[in-house]
Specification:
alpha/beta, about 15% strand, single chain, 19 helices, seven-stranded mixed beta sheet, about 500 residues
């Protein structure tokens, strides 16, 4: 196992896909390795599993994790494995043992005779040891110093803050003690299409809103009007731009941008070039209201995912005319108890161009072979034949519930899941081809889904979280995928 592969497993674990990371670890030679890097990774994975388990099983996994970290430290003055061993002991109700290790770590740090680490991790380790000793004031001051030494290391900050919040919970202290140090929020944006030539009112209101929110990353489409203006102003403030388009770039540009004037086309093209990521929902050949809603849900799911990875919060910015009805996306967002910042512009409704195709949303579940009958989550359409079985559902949560019921009935099946807006006269056999291909690529007992479409589940069904897993090569081209393995497989 090479160091890049070790880093890949660590990255997958950090993203929250504990099962996949553990399977990759077990499939390697790492479980038998005595190398400190392998033992530390083993401790990390066992800790994640232990915290997700209950009762005696959880306690045993945490004890194994602590042992792995202590073995990684050995006789070395290595603060990284030692602080992890201390925190795991604390979370496993071995408080005296945890505090004994914490005091030893502080002695090592104050002596200066410790293994080399970055300034951030040394100070963060000291802060964590102090927190384990219930010295919250000193811990807070030390962590502030650590983050000042590496102000842009948001992912490292997130790892630390997640660990500190677990400790605070066990200490019975307020979980918001370190909230002032959390990374900038993720922002989903959605706004009116079309703006007058004089954008001064819209610009002033949006600048004020973004200066107050101070997002680190923004997620949304780039329709002419508020979307494009939000994206431009966010980029100017140093935020990362993640674009999600409900159909191809060319089709979206023609219908949602070009019809409102060439000045918008130039700005759209520039933003596509400057964006960190541009995701296109490839299954939608036409632009429709169903495709737009699907795209909104994907963008919201990605914003939530980004916030979770960075241990920060997510909110939405809705730019409206005041008379506009709340969209379906807003109901989904508010149902999670998430904040929507409303910004009303005093603009008249501009002329709307044509071009939106009639369509409905479908979540399509595929299998290379027959699927067992399941009483829950009745599909709206179904076909089967030599090529496999396809079941279509009106929404992703229903399809996902059905897929999980299928795997409970037949745990070794391979399933594929695709989400798309389909025409009223659509052909399910054709629309379901990708779901069958995805199923053939799925490991036994798992679900392989089109990506980023599956990210919508981070919003709609947070317990069913897919992880991005690269691409598969098909006759349709290279298809980005996500994987989901039921946790019951542990």
């Amino acid at each position: 196992m090479t160091l890049p592969a070790l880093a890949r497993i660590r990255q997958i674990a950090r993203a929250g896909d504990t099962l996949r990371a553990w399977r990759m670890f077990e499939a390697s030679a790492l479980p038998q390795s005595s190398a400190p890097e392998a033992l530390s990774l083993k401790g990390r994975l066992l800790k994640d599993r232990g915290l997700r388990s209950e009762g005696e099983e959880g306690r045993e996994l945490l004890q194994q994790a602590q042992a792995a970290y202590l073995a990684a430290a050995g006789d070395r003055r290595a603060t990284y494995p030692l602080i992890n061993a201390a925190t795991i002991a604390f979370l496993n109700d071995r408080v005296d043992e945890a505090r004994g290790i914490a005091r030893h770590i502080l002695e090592i740090l104050r002596s200066g005779a410790h293994e080399q680490e970055t300034r951030y991790w040394l100070a963060a380790t000291e802060a964590e040891a102090l927190l384990l000793l219930d010295d919250a004031k000193a811990s807070r001051e030390t962590l502030e110093r650590a983050m000042a030494a590496a102000p842009e290391a948001w992912e490292d900050h997130a790892v630390t803050l997640r660990q500190f919040r677990q400790i605070l919970k066990r200490l019975g202290r307020s979980p918001d003690l370190f909230d002032h140090l959390e990374p900038p929020p993720s922002l989903y944006f959605y706004g009116i299409i079309g703006l007058p030539d004089d954008e001064s009112e819209a610009r002033a209101k949006l600048e004020q809103a973004l200066d107050e929110i101070r997002p680190g990353a923004v997620f949304g489409a780039l329709a002419a009007g508020a979307d494009i203006l939000v994206a431009e102003l966010a980029l100017a403030r140093g935020a990362r731009l993640h674009v999600v388009l409900p159909t191809s770039i060319a089709r979206f540009r023609d219908i949602s941008v070009r019809q409102y004037g060439m000045r918008w086309v130039e700005r759209f093209d520039r933003l596509v070039e400057e964006a960190d990521v541009v995701d296109v929902l490839g299954g939608n050949s036409e632009l429709s209201q169903a495709a737009i809603l699907d795209g909104s849900r994907v963008a919201m799911g990605l914003a939530l995912r980004h916030a979770r990875i960075l241990a920060t919060r997510a909110l939405a910015l809705h730019v409206s005319r005041g008379t506009d009805d709340a969209g379906g996306w807003e109901a989904d967002w508010r149902a999670r108890g998430l904040l929507v910042r409303e910004l009303v512009l005093d603009e008249t409704l501009p002329p709307r161009g044509g071009g939106l195709a009639p369509a409905s949303s479908r979540a399509i579940l595929g299998s290379p072979g027959p699927l067992p009958p399941i009483s829950g989550g009745i599909p709206v359409e179904e076909i089967s034949g030599e090529g496999g079985t396809i079941r279509a559902f009106a929404d992703l949560p229903t399809a996902m519930d059905h897929a999980l019921a299928v795997l409970r009935s037949a745990p070794d099946l391979q399933l594929g899941l695709d989400q798309r807006a389909v025409a009223l006269d659509h052909n399910l056999e054709i629309d379901g081809e990708l779901a069958i291909l995805l199923a053939r690529a799925a490991p036994s007992g798992s679900i392989c889904a089109s990506w980023p479409q599956a990210a919508a589940l981070d919003l709609l069904t947070p317990d069913c979280r897919f992880e991005s897993a690269g691409e598969i090569v098909t006759a349709m081209g290279d298809v980005p995928i996500g994987l989901f393995c039921p946790r019951s497989a542990f």
